[in-house]
Amino acid sequence: MTQPLQTSLAEYSFHRRIHNLIFDELGQAVLRIHNEQFQGTSIADSTQYSKNQPIRNSNVPRALSYNQILHKLTNGRIQVASPADVVHYWSDIPERFSTFADTDSISLFSPSGENQDLAQRVFQLLGRTITTVPLRVSGLGIEKADNVLGFTFIQTELTKAVEAPYMTQDGRVCYDPATQDLRAAQPDERGVQIQIPEAQSGLRRAYRNSVNLIFSDDELLGSCADGQVQVVQRHPKAA
Fold first, then answer.
1. What is d(CA 118, CA 149) in angstroms, rounded to the nearest whole number?
2. With bands split at pLDDT 50, 70 and 90, how would you rate the model's confidence at 2?
């Protein structure tokens, strides 16, 4: 008897430390589930991909949706890369100079400002009303909503907010093995350049654009063919 698709995909693996999600068995399953959930909206991806072609047209709702689907299909083994993963595996990122890729996170500065309704929604999900330090919120889910963007955020088992003091000014960040997260680079460290909004308010993207990490972009639905979906392999969760 053929194993169920989810069982076989739980063993899915790749050899690179960071990898493009491609239109193979896993990528096809992710897109099928995503497009069924968001049928009739601009969040669905109607691109006709060829076998093993990188899945493109990344934006915030797609990346977060794919992350949740990947988590379920692979039993926690494969997930969309976080900003910390991006910096950690910087030298292994495919086509780094000519692409961008959304991460599993959003940048949260305040409950007012850019994308204000969604910012307030995330604060509500976190059980907070304000923050004195910018937050990087990972693992949010999305669902259809009757608003301008066509979606809203939901909390999932992966949702986590961490204080990100490096998101107060442009500069450089490094990966810290001790915390498995980002920290501001020291003067003698090369690090990765980050871009912070001049007006630190509201909710914004958290993505790699060529050779920079961007925490300032407020256009959550923006996408094009250069937008890859980059994933990492984590330790599988027990069944």
1. 10
2. very low
Cα dist from 45 to 67, 136, 195, 212, 225, whole Å: 15, 26, 28, 26, 11
- Overall average pLDDT of the 216-232 stretch: 96
Q: 141-144 and 151-154: which strand pairing?
A: antiparallel
pTM > 0.85: yes or no: yes
CB crowding 30-64: b at 16 or more within 10 Å, else e: bbebbbebbeeeebbbeeeeeeeebbbbbbbbbbb
DSSP 21: -
Strands in 18-20's sheet, in edge-to-edge order, are 18-20, 230-233, 78-80
The β-bridge partners of 141 are 154
Interatomic CA distance for residues 127 and 141, integer angstroms: 16
Quickly count: other Cβ atoms within 10 Å of residue 23's Cβ. Answer: 19
Tokens 């910012």 locate to 119
Domain locations in the chain as residue ranges: 16-230
pLDDT per residue over 135-187, tens digit each? 999 999 999 999 999 999 999 999 999 999 999 999 999 999 999 999 999 99
User: What average pLDDT does the chain have?
Assistant: 93
